[in-house]
């Protein structure tokens, strides 16, 4: 009897728990009904209408802004290009520089891309740099620094021939080749640099060869000495990687080393000073040798009173 009673109590507890579970209700916070659906549709139409109105207003504002910009600025004759002032010095003419910009009288200075115009000018191999100014009253100012040639560069490998061949090419003080469109008397008077082993010849680009830069330095120093009444420098030959041969009017050839030009120029000055005093007609002089510098003459030199022994004594022996 006690066992049956215990079992009946458990069964009663289980049935009570099941009834409690079946009595649980789930609340739907978003119920579906025709009225609610109608309200949601109305709200969607309102949001769509407001969005459409904002978009229309934005388009009207953008359109008005574009029309204002186009009519008041782009079509305003005040900002159209009327005059171009070019400040430069070199082989390029004003007309060539203006043509390189690609600008016309219909160009608006307000909307013009200055960086692009400057790049067009600097693409010319004769131009080193350019600066552009605009004043918004129709005037454009171009300050152009050109590469000023100082000599001719000759190299058969790159088909750079002598000046009057029609295939001549100039070079500036930095070592950049400069095309020669018009040959003037001033250009013809410039010395020539002959370098058969020139590595590259790109117009407007500085040559990487050290021999070219050494030749330009030597040319500059020798041209300073032309003012003293010495023979005029005609050309500098670069026969190899370690020497430079300067050819002067009167068939004198002076050989220099590529490095340490200063002490070589000092010995050159002493020798030429003695040659002028004694009227020597120098044929060759090799300054590569630091001791007992070899020299040849077109005729027997006058060495009267010249103490060669004392000169040799003061010169340190070669090692």
Detail the topology: elements first, then pairings:
Blueprint: H1 2-22, H2 34-74, E1 83-87, H3 94-101, H4 114-122, E2 127-134, E3 139-146, E4 149-154, E5 169-172, E6 177-179, H5 185-188, E7 192-194, H6 210-226, E8 233-237, E9 243-248, E10 252-257, H7 261-278, E11 282-286, E12 295-297, H8 308-313
Parallel strand pairs: 1-3, 4-7, 7-8, 10-11
Antiparallel strand pairs: 2-3, 4-5, 5-6, 8-9, 9-10, 11-12
Q: Give the percentage of residues in beta strands.
A: 15-25%
Question: Radius of gyration from the CA trace?
Answer: 45 Å
Structure summary, number of beta strands: 12
CATH superfamily of the largest domain: Cell division protein FtsQ/DivIB
**SS summary, helix count:** 8
> How does the helix and strand content classify structurally?
alpha/beta
User: Reading side by side through the largest sheet, how are the strands ordered?
Assistant: 6-5-4-7-8-9-10-11-12
Name the helix and strand elements from N-terminus to C-terminus, one letter apiece. HHEHHEEEEEHEHEEEHEEH
CATH architecture of the largest domain: 3-Layer(aba) Sandwich
Provide the CATH topology of the largest domain: Rossmann fold
Major sheet description: 9 strands, mixed
Shape: elongated
Q: Provide mean pLDDT, rounded.
A: 84
Number of domains: 3
Distance between the termini: 135 Å
CATH class of the largest domain: Alpha Beta
Helix content: 25-40%
Q: Show unreliable segments.
A: 309-319
